[in-house]
Amino acid sequence: MELLCCEVDPVRRAVPDANLLYDDRVLQNLLTIEERYLPQCSYFKCVQKDIQPYMRRMVATWMLEVCEEQKCEEEVFPLAMNYLDRFLAGVPTPKTHLQLLGAVCMFLASKLKETIPLTAEKLCIYTDNSIKPQELLEWELVVLGKLKWNLAAVTPHDFIEHILRKLPQPSEKLSLIRKHAQTFIALCATDFKFAMYPPSMIATGSVGAAICGLQQDEDVSSLTGDALVDLLAKITNTDVDCLKACQEQIEVVLLNSLQQFRQDQGDGSKSEDELDQASTPTDVRDIDL
């Protein structure tokens, strides 16, 4: 007797809602409320005494790797970093609790965005069991209280589809542009210099950087250079010079990431299997500027 495997993917995803994507009021509402969810200050200067910027980058990289390995939705990691930054902007935190805070933020973000959220036990395993599930659950309430249960933050991903539908690019290129833009958004979330940027600016700069990078190899848009930047700035009511500066910074972050990857590859500090894993939603090795 033959056994047939009839298992299907248990994850169910909603199809894009045209009523939301094609109504400009939705975009305007996002632009109106986005700054409510930004950190209130550059917390390394006035709040945190024990935590340094490089520590944030380390925990952010770890969080990104966990989200990638667990195949989380693209929104989970930037949303978790938003929670982490908003918490650190108001609560002095010992560096020994930073990974615990990162795990709690992923826990909360996955509950909001995932069909099947990450479990406390699984997150504890990723910390080499340095924290216990009960400790994570207790800190979940602490973080929720400090964030005033205001978890539905606006992230750059909320703007991507609104931006793409207004650009005159071939429809068959949309998925590639979207994929690269998601990579830039993830890279921005790991770098503190973007923590105070409005999500709409990061999204717009990421789309612009994606199109400019892809334009070298193939025709992905009829607009290039200043014309593209002007249109992107108009879509999200962003200052053109600020947008250009943001896009340049995004490209610098990508180049630094590529250089770090090549250095690690040259040093042989990672195994071949680790090098084959994408560390972002799009492998940075696949991006060209």
Can you characterise this structure?
This is G1/S-specific cyclin-D2. Residues 264-289 are annotated as: Disordered. By secondary structure, this protein is mainly α. The protein folds into 2 domains: 37-146, Cyclin A, domain 1 (Orthogonal Bundle), CATH 1.10.472; 157-286, Orthogonal Bundle (Cyclin A, domain 1), CATH 1.10.472.10. It is 59% helix and 0% strand. The longest helix has 28 residues, at 240-267. It is globular and about 50 Å long. It starts with 17 loop residues before the first helix and ends in a 13-residue tail after the last helix. Mean pLDDT is 82; it is low at 272-282.
Task: Give the secondary structure arrangement, pairings included.
Layout: H1 18-21, H2 24-33, H3 43-46, H4 53-69, H5 76-88, H6 98-113, H7 120-126, H8 133-146, H9 157-164, H10 174-190, H11 199-215, H12 225-235, H13 240-267, H14 272-276
Helix pairs in contact: 4-6, 5-6, 5-10, 6-8, 7-8, 9-10, 9-11, 10-11, 11-12, 11-13
